[in-house]
Design a protein that fits this description.
- The strands form eleven sheets. This protein has an eight-stranded parallel β-sheet. Strands 3-6-9-13-16-20 form a six-stranded parallel β-sheet, with no helix packed on it. A five-stranded parallel β-sheet has the order 1-4-7-11-14, with no helix packed on it.
- About 5% of the residues lie in helices and about 40% in strands.
- The protein is mainly beta and about 525 residues long.
- It has two helices and 42 strands.
- It starts with a strand and ends with a strand.
């Protein structure tokens, strides 16, 4: 399932509620105004990329990987954890009563390169908690799943019990929690509960732990007074000194907590770019891939995509190793140069990918940055504009689209440069296929796309599902794309295929190296 460029709001409880949904993405959406979480992926949901979204006005919080589910509503083999293989990066979460992000019973969950602003007004900013498991009435199905997950943490009673929790969250860097002076999360920076004794007959290892392999590093946190608690001070909480990956001294050493105040251009009006030249966290960590190989054996679960790449920022611009903390990689003026960003939308308000923004100098003398193209959600960004120079920004695409306005003239001090397209998007086509060898199908194979000729831009990669199938939409008409499968330890026949029109049989046969 792929949800891109949508505006989703106004739910009494959760604006987006995914239970037992596997394989997909949420990219470039605005998800807001909900009484509970703005969005969660739970109930064994797996292998999702959540990128470049804006979450705000949430009651319980912004986004959570995992939560609690009636056992019978899950789907095999994703029975052991509430959320598997979730990558949450380059998102902005702001103005939530509860946590910006929660991980509740998750496995291999990445939270990196995000900006959190004015979050946790009635609780805390970030949480790592237990997933919950119970049987909501269908005892037969619950028993069937319990047998499949023999020896693993499950409950078939009507009492909701804590499921086993394992996560590797934010193994790296550059999330920015920031609040205006005078604002604070109500109680603490984090909520990480201590170990619990599961209910009898729940089949859960005892004690159950919510802080197993949690890694919180490289973040810039500016939130309330200097003495705002971490949230783990009491010995009954998680991340105590015996935990090798998360404890108080480590959190303060590996993160800048109320020591550096991030400077954003205009967050109150939606511009979350960092001010150019600001200080950043001194502790910077790589984003290592997940190791994998430690999932329960019964039933066998796909390893998932272990890569922790986060190549694009909130606007869709390329992210470099020198990117500042937060969701937006490009900075805004103050050091002789400035950056621009914006969004191009369709008449229905959705983002319009594949629009080229070109720049010309109207007056003054300075650098002329290269043209850029809007990403999946219609966002774009570019750096290197010279202070004191007036630039013209002009949108165009492969068709005869009329944009409103036709161009904008901008200089330092301006930020969001948006355009609206008058008319339907350019014609596109879809392609799909399988990766299999005889009767054996291959899941989690990355399918990459590269524009070989024509005006279209390259869409992001997709991954094969549990049935070995893959699909991609939005390929620009008149453009030829090279489709290439990638899986470590394998080569493919053919190595790649070129497509220039709708096709359903773009398939590959793997062979181990």
């Amino acid at each position: 399932m792929h949800v891109d460029g949508c505006d989703i709001s106004g739910a009494w409880d959760n604006a987006v509620d995914c239970v037992a949904v596997q394989y997909g993405s949420f990219v470039g959406n605005r998800i807001h105004r909900s009484g509970d979480w703005c969005m969660y992926l739970k109930g064994g949901s797996a292998q999702f990329r959540v990128e470049g979204n804006e979450f705000f006005d949430g009651g319980t919080g912004g986004f959570t990987a995992g939560q609690g589910t009636g056992f019978e509503f899950m789907t095999a083999p994703f029975l052991h954890y509430e959320a598997y293989d979730i990558r949450f990066f380059s998102n902005v979460v702001h103005d939530t009563e509860g946590a910006a992000v929660g991980v509740n019973g998750g496995y291999n969950v990445l939270v990196a390169h995000n900006t959190f602003y004015r979050v946790g007004s009635r609780s805390h900013a970030l949480e790592f908690a237990f997933g919950l498991r119970g049987c909501d009435g269908d005892a037969g199905r619950c028993g069937e799943y319990l047998a499949l997950a023999a020896g693993e943490p499950r409950s078939v009673t009507t009492e909701r019990t804590n499921s086993r929790f394992r996560t590797a969250t934010s193994p790296s860097t550059t999330t920015s929690f920031t609040t205006p002076r005078g604002f604070r999360s109500e109680y603490a920076h984090f909520s990480i509960p201590g170990p619990r004794t599961p209910a009898a007959f729940s089949n859960i290892p005892s004690p159950a732990r919510a802080d197993e392999n949690v890694r919180i590093r490289g973040n810039v946190i500016w939130n309330g007074p200097a003495d705002l608690p971490l949230g783990i001070e009491d010995s009954s909480e998680g991340c105590q000194p015996a935990n090798p990956t998360c404890f108080a001294a480590q959190l303060r050493a590996d993160n800048a907590i109320n020591t550096i105040e991030p400077q954003l251009v205009a967050p109150a009006s939606g511009d979350f770019r960092p001010v150019a030249g600001q200080s950043v966290c001194g502790s910077v960590f790589d984003l290592p891939d997940f190791a994998g190989g430690d999932l329960p054996s019964s039933p066998p679960t796909p390893a998932g995509n272990l890569s922790n790449e986060a190549p694009r920022d909130f606007t869709g611009a390329a992210r470099s190793a020198a990117s500042p903390p937060g969701a937006v990689a490009i900075a805004g003026g103050g050091t002789g140069t400035f950056a621009l960003s914006g969004r191009v939308t369709n008449p229905d308000g959705s983002g319009r990918p594949g629009v080229t923004l070109t720049f010309t100098i109207v007056s003054g003398s300075g650098a002329l940055p290269a043209a850029v193209t809007t990403g999946d959600g219609g966002g774009w960004g570019q750096t290197g504009f010279t202070d004191g120079v007036l630039y013209r920004v002009t949108p165009s695409d492969a068709g005869s689209t009329v944009f409103a306005p036709a161009f904008r003239e901008v200089s330092a001090g301006q930020s969001a440069v948006d355009f609206a397209a008058d008319g339907p998007p350019p014609q596109t086509y879809a392609v799909s296929g399988t990766v299999k060898k005889r009767a054996k199908v291959f899941a989690n194979v990355e399918i990459r796309f590269a524009a070989v000729s024509g005006p279209g831009s390259s869409p992001p990669p997709v991954f094969t599902g549990a049935d070995g199938r893959w699909s991609q939409t939005g390929l620009a008409a008149g453009t030829t794309y090279r489709v290439t499968p990638v899986l470590k330890g394998y080569r493919f026949k053919p190595a790649s295929r070129d497509v220039d029109a709708e096709a359903t049989g773009v398939s590959f046969k793997p062979k181990r190296l």
